[in-house]
Design brief:
single chain, mainly beta, Immunoglobulin-like, seven-stranded antiparallel sheet, six-stranded mixed sheet, 16 strands, disordered N terminus
């Protein structure tokens, strides 16, 4: 079987329980349909987008345990500064993490899903998932950045071709019809 694993809850992947949501500090928050950096609006990118208040960020993390330790670290408002990894070797695991903000309305449920798709360097399909539950409980406070309950682990096998792989995550809020398609690229090197 191909080493393409959908993980429900990064906490399971990392082997630890994690707070699911944190208020966003000035360096990463979503307000009124746009991500902010240091309190100023920033443009969408292929890996960071928003749609009418629903915002998503796609990260590729080499060390899921270190990421979860940083995510859980106090104070609560401290969203860890994480750089998405871009280069992996055979035997590595690419941990795909989705952060989001703006799902649902205050005092109501947020029903969000995320579907993942990965393509090989030649453009062929490496693997994909059906929509997975990203969040199914009370909506987080405005300006709060949450970590999706669904994540993805991609094990780079010895037979996997070197070159650029593309990960696409489609984050959708089923209650409002809002969705963002997020893309990250990584290279497998010899």
């Amino acid at each position: 079987m191909k080493a393409f694993i959908a993980i429900l809850g990064l906490a399971m992947l990392a082997g630890c329980a994690a707070p699911a949501a944190r208020p966003g500090p000035e360096t990463i928050s979503s307000v009124y349909d746009q991500w902010l950096e240091s309190g100023k609006p920033i443009a969408d990118t292929e890996w960071r987008k928003s749609d009418r208040g629903l915002g998503g960020i796609l990260l590729l993390v080499k060390d899921a345990n270190a990421f979860m330790r940083a995510w859980k670290a106090p104070p609560e408002w401290n969203v860890p500064a994480v750089r998405s990894a871009g280069e992996f070797r055979r035997g590595d695991t690419v941990n795909v993490v989705v952060l989001f903000s703006g799902c649902g309305r205050m005092s109501l449920e947020c029903g969000a899903s995320v579907a993942f798709k990965v393509t090989r360097p030649d453009g062929s399909l490496y693997g994909e998932t059906m929509p997975l539950t990203a969040w199914s409980r009370a909506a987080v406070k405005p300006g709060t950045v949450a970590i999706s309950d669904a994540s993805l682990g991609i094990r780079i096998e010895p037979k996997d071709a070197p070159g650029e792989y593309v990960v696409v995550a489609t984050l959708a809020d089923s209650d409002s019809g809002r969705a963002v398609e997020l893309t990250r690229r990584f290279r497998v090197v010899e």
